[in-house]
Write a structure and sequence with these properties.
alpha/beta, about 10% strand, Rossmann fold, binds adenosine-5'-triphosphate, binds magnesium ion, Arc Repressor Mutant, subunit A, 8 strands
């Protein structure tokens, strides 16, 4: 008889890279989960909210007999999509002639579980309303949100995620013990590596300049294969001035992140820059999809592999795991936003979208409005990072090229590119 396996009690993704520090946050948050049913991890993009939430959730599994379930909300825009992501995460199917939120609430009512809603920023108002109703209707359900801003509802415990710790004093023998410096060394040299005292001082300066923001540190550390710490420090100095302590704060961190992204982008080759901005149309993707969708005369298919590898090496693209035997990738959220801005500014979107969508799906009624549906891409609904199946951009492409099913994709949605290639 085949061995019985217990049903999975979580859907958390494997961590793509090592996790550094945060011991205090973890233990405090785990304790807080014992008393508070709604916790929001807040902070600037790239500060590490998602990584911290996933760690907390993984360590909390034993406290939630009905499991710990992640729903990724970074690319949804409506209440219906939020509900359908949550339902997909916990494995609740839609019933005929019934609102899915009713089915979901009924199913969760008796369950003792933790829902992790990651990337709530764009729908924080909808999440707040739905979360309040869910907490009222389901007394054993707890919520862990990540968002730049809090949900601002009663009973919410707001946890401001700090940057990684920086060394307190220059010349401190324990410099390398600071979380920020450890992350830089680990990402640039590999786990357990050490560096000479001069390099250590320079790396400390770099981490201070980047204010301990992990995404910025990873982007800077990725250039260590090609540059010394001194060169990286000089390049950063040229890019943006030293900030005084009084100037530091959330808006400043946003500026630092933008400057580091600009800097990192400026060091890429033309084809790498082109690929980066085109990849912003995907939630996640595999190589074949990127080759098919992102290539054209300017960026031949044969160059995509090398350009994509370079983006992985520079920490601008991360691996998310394997799906159906293919490795899948994604852009960190802040990188995706940055790349999408560049895609829009490049004019490529305007050139290809209207013509392609009109060809595949009918003509827009007037500029800016599309003929059918709610302006969302059907193939993306209910799927996403961390759910059972990854976003099916091929389905998007098929839906959009098949007139009976045609709903109009958002400009910038992957299916626009898919249409462009297949139309
Ligand atoms: N404690 C940590 N140890 C190692 N790497 C980390 C840690 N925290 C964050 N990182 C890395 O920094 C990057 C940004 O982290 P993360 O995605 O969690 O940020 P975020 O605050 O959720 O950003 P966003 O608001 O854009 O979603 C990721 O590549 C992540 O792996
Ligand atoms: Mg995040």
């Amino acid at each position: 008889m085949a061995p019985q396996t217990a049903p999975a009690r979580q859907n958390l993704p494997l961590e793509p890279t090592s996790f550094i520090g945060r011991g205090r946050d973890l233990s405090d948050l785990l304790r807080l989960l014992g008393s508070d049913r709604l916790i929001t991890l807040c902070g600037v993009s790239g500060v590490g909210k998602t990584r911290l939430a996933l760690r907390v959730a993984a360590q909390a599994i034993a406290s939630f007999p009905d499991g710990v379930w992640l729903a990724e909300l970074a690319d949804v825009s409506t209440r219906e999509e939020i509900v359908s992501r949550i339902a997909a995460a916990v494995g609740i199917a839609e019933e005929a002639d019934r609102d899915l939120s009713g089915t979901l609430f009924d199913a969760l009512r008796g369950r003792h579980l933790l829902l992790v809603l990651d990337g709530c920023d764009a729908v924080i108002g909808e999440v707040a309303a739905l979360g309040r109703a869910l907490l009222d209707a389901c007394p054993s359900t707890s919520l862990l949100l990540t968002s730049e801003e809090p949900a601002r509802i009663s009973g919410e415990a707001i946890w401001r995620v700090p940057p990684l710790s920086l060394p307190s004093r220059q010349g401190d023998p324990a410099l390398a013990d600071s979380e920020a410096v450890r992350l830089f060394i680990e990402r640039s040299q590999g786990p357990g590596s050490t560096v000479c005292p001069h390099q250590l001082r320079t790396i400390t300066d770099i981490c201070r300049r980047l204010d301990g923001i992990p995404l910025c540190i990873e982007l800077a550390a990725a250039w260590m294969r090609f540059r010394s710490p001194d060169e990286i420090a000089d390049l950063l100095t040229a890019r943006f001035p030293q900030l005084t302590d009084q100037e530091r704060g959330v808006p400043t961190r946003r500026r630092i992140l933008h400057a580091v992204l600009d800097w990192s982008n400026s060091l890429l080759s033309d084809s790498e820059q082109t690929l980066l901005r085109r990849l912003s149309v995907f939630c996640d993707w595999d190589l074949e999809l990127a080759e098919r969708i992102c290539s054209d005369e300017e960026l031949p298919e044969a160059e995509i592999l090398d350009a994509a590898s370079a983006l992985v090496d520079r920490s601008l693209v991360t691996l998310t795991g394997e799906y159906q035997g293919r490795v899948r990738y994604r852009l960190p959220r802040a990188v995706r936003r940055y790349a999408a801005e560049h895609l829009a500014a490049s004019g490529e979107e305007e050139r290809s979208v209207p013509a392609t969508v009109a060809r595949c799906c009918g003509s827009p009624r007037s500029s800016g409005t599309w003929p059918c549906s709610a302006g969302r891409c059907p193939g993306q609904s209910g799927t996403g990072f961390g759910t059972a199946s990854p976003p099916n951009t091929t389905t998007c492409a098929r839906s959009c090229t098949d007139p009976p099913n045609a709903a109009i994709p958002k400009p910038g949605c992957a299916c626009v590119w898919a249409c462009a290639r297949s139309g």
